[in-house]
Amino acid sequence: MTPIETAEELRALLGVPNERAANKERTRLLDIDRDWLAASPFCVLATSDAEGRCDASPKGDPAGSLVHVIDETTIAIAERPGNRRADGYLNVIANPHVGLLFLIPGRTDTLRINGRARLVRDADFFDAMSVRERRPVMALVVEIEQVFFHCAKAFLRSGLWEHESWAPHETIPRRAVIAKQFENAPGTLEELDSYYGESYSKGLY
After folding, report:
1. CB contact set of 101 (below 8 Å; sequence gap of 6+)
2. Separation between Cα atoms, residue 129 and residue 122, nearest integer Å
3. 150 φ/ψ angles, rounded to the nearest 5 degrees
4. Cα 104 to the chain's mean position, in Å?
5. Residues 6 or more apart from 112 whose CB is under 8 A from it?
6. What is d(CA 137, CA 83) in angstroms, rounded to the nearest whole number?
7. pLDDT tens for residues 139-174?
8. Mean per-residue pLDDT for 52-58?
9. Closest CA to 92 of 140, 144, 44
10. 138 close to 119: Cβ distance less than 8 angstroms
11. Which domains are present in the chain?
């Protein structure tokens, strides 16, 4: 492998962004950003710990429930019952800098938000983020430092939303098989199939 070790080497290879790309970021939400957040049911939260070890975690809710806009520089992301690893949240306690990528199904462009985060156990806006009459377990409050729209090329190259590009499900073992063979999950395969089946969705909230 031929390494790239300096910013100068990287720029010599990639070039520099054009003026529009270089200057498109903002520090406050516009109405279009609010509309995008309201329509987004899914985001990826990127964090790192004090030593720089990174984590990327998916967050999902019905559109309109995932994100609460507190004001033009502050948003909150709901946390629901999960596996309790809390990798990203432990990182936030050590290092508040976060990156967020908000997706809308079928759209190839995305909204990116970078900022400083903190965890809150309760707030007056939790009721507005309730789903199935369940309030969030907690929330990640992000003070926005950068917000901008990201171009569509990664999604176009991957064909993510194109059904004909999806590999058949049988090419990758089902979730129960992965849990049994690679995660030392207790129980029989039949029990795991039952756990990851219809009953799994009943514990979302």
Report:
1. 43, 44, 46, 110, 111, 112, 150
2. 11
3. -105, 145
4. 12
5. 99, 100, 101, 102, 146, 147, 148, 149, 150
6. 13
7. 999 999 999 999 999 999 999 999 888 876 678 889
8. 96
9. 140
10. yes
11. 22-157 (2.30.110.10), 167-203 (no CATH)
> Tokens standing for 33?
């950003």
Separation between Cα atoms, residue 150 and residue 24, nearest integer Å: 10
Q: Cα(199)–Cα(205) distance, rounded to whole angstroms?
A: 12
pTM of the model: 0.91
Which helix (H) or strand (E) is 205 found in, with range?
none
Q: How far is CA 150 from the centre of its chain?
A: 15
What is the secondary structure of 97-128 as a DSSP string? EEEEEEE-TT-S-EEEEEEEEEEES--TTTGG
Residue 118 is encoded by which pair of tokens? 């903190």
